[in-house]
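To: structure subgroup
Subject: Chain for Friday's discussion

All,

I'm putting the inputs and outputs inline so they're searchable in the archive.
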Amino acid sequence: MPFSFSYRPPSPTESVFLLGNLDELGGDEVLRALPMQSDDGLQWRLSASVPTDQEITYGYWVRDHRSTKLEDPQNGTRISEEKTIKKQRESRPGGKALIVHSALDGPILHWRQGDGDYDQLLLEKVGAGRFDGEQRWRARRFGLANRSLQFFLTDREEKVREPLEGAYQTPLDRMFLQDQELFTYVPEASVSPMRRDYGAQPRSLKSEALDLVRQYTVMLPRGYAEHTARRYPVVYFYDGQILWDPVGSYVPWDRDGKRMAELVRSGEVGEMILVGMVSDLAQRLAEVTPPEDMIYGTSAPGQADLVMAFISTELKPLVDASYRTKPGREDTFMTGFSGGGLLAMLAGWEYHSTFGAVALQSAGLGAAPNFNARILQDPKPPFRIYLDVGTQDGLDPAGNAFFGLSQGVWNDLLGDSPPAVLEKDIRVHLGLGHAHQFHDAGQRIEPLMTFLHPATLERDEELWALTR
């Protein structure tokens, strides 16, 4: 949906932002307002993907766009009347369905969408459970599809509650609840947790492209051993040695994969195989710099093309041969932090036949001025891109502000003709108060992973048949 507004901010440090009631439009939180793009400082525009079955209210704000100011909830003034778009088609009730294994006596589903009171629905028994005393129960044709759901279960006397505190919250429309985990398919009776597929030392691969032995790590999704017919998308990470394990003074991106496991458990993110390429810190600048640029502080060209050749022609074929992957580009992703983000952008720009989406976290674009200039000048190739940056990211080795460079890239992509569509082609996320730290980037795992592979994209015919 295109949005446009004419307004000239009174200060060059101010820009126009869009803010609406949907999560895709900031959820009425001024700190999450969406920056719009302008070529002349007067005409502002933005295209965003929004649901077609909800009432949308939105308006335009002017905010100081300097990174130090964007953390201030008082930084923002509404400059338009609130506008409302009526529902383009009526929301049909009955869009949600749930199957659950439970030992509760006559379980009742308590559910809501939004902040109102919980509705109640008596579950129907549809079969035996996994052990004596457990049954399989079903609730169907309740709620509205494509909207977040909160729910919990009680016994018929409402004395026993699951979970004990709080509620499950998920965007899923069809779901199977077992052992307090949500699935988009019918799971086996016992499901093993997400696990490392490497020991005390990472795995190794002799690279012809790099002419050395390269190490890598692999994290397998929950239930990988039990669900032998399932295949999985793959995310490739740079700096794989500190994704899940502490190394020296470095705090891991996601210690033991706990945040990722929780996102999968709640039905936010689909199950994926995660692969980390162990980087050589001494050679890192050389490895992430595109060959059209000089390695910072030297007169030698970058070697990122060699690293990408290793990943795309050696590491990926090995992973596809060793694990049950979905090898197509639409299910193959790459991400990285800082210099790794620069490498991820190169993966999307030059290797989009292999990678359908990339994620840049605080990308070190300033280390590659020639490549960065090409990004801003050339049409974007056909890949999806996630861009984030911390508002306290500071400066890269070349003295460039990470925030300013990332802002320039997303403004350019949103202003392309045709423009990139927010939440479809591109997602932009600001880490409020986040510094240029690997651990801070790990705090942004939810917007990154839900963009790459949301669980709502998964459909299992067996589960759908059970919930019709």
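Points worth raising on Friday:
The CA atoms of residues 337 and 361 lie 5 Å apart.
The mean pLDDT is 91.

D.
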